Amino acid sequence: MGQLLTSTESLDISISEELEAQGVSRRNFLKFCTAITAAMGLPASMVAKVAETITSPTRTPVIWLHFQECTGCTESLLRATHPTVEELVLDMISLDYSETLCAAAGHQVEKSLNDSATLNDGKYILVVEGSIPVKENGIYCKIADRTALDILNDYGNRAAAVVAIGSCASWGGVQSSSPNPTGATGVHEIITEKPVINLPGCPASPYNLLSTILYYLTLGKLPQLDSKARPKFAYGRLIHEHCERRPHFDAGRFALEFGDDGHREGYCLYKLGCKGPETYNNCSSILYGDVGSGAWPVGTGHPCFGCSEEGVGFTKYIHEQSAVFTDTPPASYAQISGDKAGGITIGGAAVAGAVGGVIVGASAMAAKKMKAEETAPESDA
Ligand code: SF4
To answer: Stretch 313-330: mean pLDDT, rounded?
Structure first.
């Protein structure tokens, strides 16, 4: 870590001042930049550039639309920490319109939406939260007397790029479950002439939104996407590949009922319906929510239900056993959670992951190492 600090000493002093004002130490900020740079698949030499992008006074205009959804993705972002991800995101962009966060209302806020789109025509990023109902010409979701379908067509086709945040906007989410009475669908089914990036999850990880926006602002281009338009750096691996319960799966140790001995011992949840083996996301690597111990569903003892995977989440029964795409154990096992992991708890891994750099592909051994660094004396050297 000392090497990192040396390589980024050229950062403008105002960065430190700004972050200190937000209650974030320079050391933790640089650790965060290191983690997020690696998570985006960028080399360590880009850490300083990423840090500069985060603190740049230039703000990219963003319009954030809400359609059929529960606002969980916005709520999740607003409750993120380490270090205050929501502040970093909101400071990097000019959020010109958001129905959740706008202080204004009615005609005044609708005017600001239109003004922003006109002023920044072709330059703004459109973030869409929620599915779009297309049955009956979209009458099932109307805002200011316009259908969601009409609004999306209008502002989506004038944007530089569209980010579909959450499973609803990515592929319809829970509203698209059979019989899908409103014809709920994802953004990419409607906006076909502009780049659409899907960040599925229910809710989506705020770190994946931050990473995607950061990547775009730092490099001026979109990250590499998979066949479902998801950033490969976040959705390139199965949850099962880096799950802390994976050693139990490989050893054939399963919880068979909630509350049984295996469940209490932290055994694999596969036989309780865990969909980790067929769900692509980075929850098991960076965990989720920064809420301390057990900071992701599997960590709390609940099977992953594949919320981010089209055709799995809200489609398969929770108790239904998952397809297993990979049955070869990873080269380096994740450690078992809790005290048996030699001191690193799931919560410790979460904190270390968010602040210290447990990234896609990293194991809990790396988390343990970072945990040790976290407890080292603070230094701004
Ligand atoms: S089946 Fe689920 S609980 Fe078991 S190792 Fe895979 S992701 Fe983890």
So the answer is: 83
In a domain, 313, yes or no: yes
* Alpha-carbon span 262 to 248, nearest angstrom: 10
**Domain at 282, CATH number:** 4.10.480.10
- For ligand 1, atom 1, name the residue with the nearest CA: 270
Pocket probe mutation, ligand 1, options 258, 274, 305, max atoms within 8 Å of Cβ: 274
C-alpha distances (whole Å) from 69 to each of 161, 175, 185, 229, 319 are 21, 8, 12, 20, 25
Query: Is 139 part of a structural domain of the chain?
Result: yes
Judge contact between 125 and 93, C-beta under 8 A: yes
Residues 374 and 350 sit within 8 Å (Cβ to Cβ): no
Does residue 13 lie in a domain region? no
For residue 339, the tally of other CB atoms under 10 A from its CB is 9
What's the gap in Å between 238 CA and the centre of ligand 1? 10
Residues with CB under 6 A from ligand 1: 239-240, 243, 245-246, 249, 268-270, 274, 276-277, 298, 304
239 CA: nearest ligand 1 atom: 7
**Nearest atom, ligand 1, residue 238 CA:** 7
What secondary structure letter does DSSP report for 202? T
Residues facing 199 on adjacent strands = 165
Q: What are the pLDDT digits (tens) for 9-21?
A: 444 445 556 666 6
Q: Which atom in ligand 1 lies closest to the alpha carbon of residue 248? A: 5
Ligand 1 centroid from CA 271, angstroms: 9
Tokens describing residue 6: 């040396």
pTM for the model: 0.79
- Whether 95 and 145 map to the same domain: the answer is yes
Nearest C-alpha neighbor of 51 from the set 97, 83, 75, 98: 83
Q: Which domain holds residue 269?
A: 239-374
How far apart, in whole angstroms, are the C-alpha atoms of residue 296 and residue 286? 9
Q: Using 50, 70 and 90 to split pLDDT, how confident is the model at 37? A: confident
- Helix ranges restricted to H, 82-161: 85-92, 106-119, 148-156
**What pLDDT does residue 26 have?**
76
